[in-house]
Amino acid sequence: MASQIFTSSPSPRTSKKQEKIKDTYIKPCIKSNCLINTDTFFPFTTTPFWQWTPKINTQLLHFKKNSTLQKIITMNFNDILHTEFQDFNHIYTDASKTSVGVGFTYSTSLTSKQFKLLPEASIFTAETQAIKETLIFRKSTISNNILIISDSLSALLAIEAPNPSNEIIYQIHNIISSTHKVIEFMGVPSYTDIPKNEKVDMLKNEAITATSSTTITTLPYQYLKRCINIHTANMWQTSWDEIPITNKLKSIKKKITKWYT
Question: Compositionally biased, Polar residues: which spans (predicted)?
Fold first, then answer.
């Protein structure tokens, strides 16, 4: 009996295939007809966070647009370019989100390019994508000193952060870290009559509907989370709607949204 116990071969185990985190997110999105093609490229940053020190000039953002003459902002802008960035190639970026769609552009003294994103994209995604596409474009150029000019303070602050959680910002970090070029940033107030900044402001709106715009069909994976949250809330609301109105709480609160008191 004992020999049978110790000599009998163990029953074979069926190994369960591990599901990828991405697939876990995608399943409920498919059920809710939220079909978003996500950008799954999420590498580790090539520069340690304690060594990440991007140069971002924010001098102009200290001016209050409501109480400062636009010509003063423009004059200071030109002075900064002349004294600090005279040997740099200046590239302007901007983005727009309207009821029609989402678009962004970058523009240099010689060329410009327009892009459009999926309508689900946020303005932050568009602004950071504009900077990313600018960096990709400038990797193949001769100029070694590049100044990217943007009116999106949130995008610049995200780039400045040493340990980002956003895919696009990660990619921006790695592009900057892997190039020998000098890349710096400058923040400018929007709608301040800076000629070239006003030009990209016009181009960004045209990009949404222009047939010549390059369409980007991927979004950061965080958008899957949003789809799941919406789908879950809809399921919960449907379940709550099926409860009879005779329920005391149901008669008081018909929606599952947060109850502010």
Answer: 1-13
Q: Where are the alpha helices (DSSP H) in the chain?
A: 2-7, 21-31, 70-84, 123-139, 153-160, 167-177, 195-207, 222-241, 248-252
List alpha helices for 140-219, DSSP H: 153-160, 167-177, 195-207
Kindly report the number of other CB atoms within 10 A of residue 149's CB atom. 27
Distance CA 24, CA 9 (A): 36
Calculate the alpha carbon distances from 110 to 91, 118, 166, 196, 203 in Å. 10, 28, 31, 12, 14
* 176 close to 138: Cβ distance less than 8 angstroms: no
Q: What is the pTM of this model?
A: 0.76
Beta bridge partners of 20: none
In angstroms, rounded to a whole number, what is the distance separating the alpha carbons of residues 37 and 45? 23
DSSP for residue 60: G
Paired tokens of 223: 């958008």
3-state secondary structure of 223: helix
Q: Is 188 helix (H, G, I), strand (E, B) or coil?
A: coil
